[in-house]
Amino acid sequence: MRRWIKQDPAFRESLRNAEAEGEAKLSRVVVKAATKDPRFALDVLRARYPERWGKRRARIETAENVPLDIPPTLPKELRAIWREAAEKHWKDPKLNRELEIYWATGETSRPKQIRALRKLLTDLETEQGDPADMPPTIN
What pTM was computed for the model? Predict the structure, then answer.
């Protein structure tokens, strides 16, 4: 096939057109299936055309150290967690989650955090507004 592509400009152009048409068809499937589950078509696009449809991840490295300064308002119960998370350069999701739950709820005890998160969820569900703004359900 490579030989044909090199030798026959018409075949090469025809192949390029067919690939472009296939990509266009797959992208239409993603758009059409957006109300259901477009993940399959999107996965196909990502696999076939990673330069245009793949996930891009930037990696930034720096010689700067993350400051270990603990916010003065952080409760004593969470100071050790803050220190450990900062020492691990904030790469430990469990430690980060503990701090995020505190910031979301303002509580340090798990039962109070759960009650606060349930209340927050209820408030968000009653304020959800337009159904089109909601993420698709996963079956």
Answer: 0.42
User: Which residue bears the tokens 């891009």?
Assistant: 56
Distance CA 81, CA 99 (A): 8
Q: What is residue 122's three-state secondary structure?
A: helix
CB 105 within 8 A of CB 116: yes
Token digits for 122? 């209820």
Which pLDDT tens digit goes with each residue over 26-49?
778 766 775 566 676 677 677 777
What sign results for the dihedral spanned by CA atoms 4, 6, 8, 13?
positive
DSSP string, 95-120: HHHHHHHHHHHS--SHHHHHHHHHHH
The total of other beta-carbon atoms located within 10 Å of residue 113's CB is: 17
Task: Pinpoint the alpha helices (H) of the chain.
Answer: 2-7, 9-32, 39-48, 50-53, 76-87, 93-105, 110-126
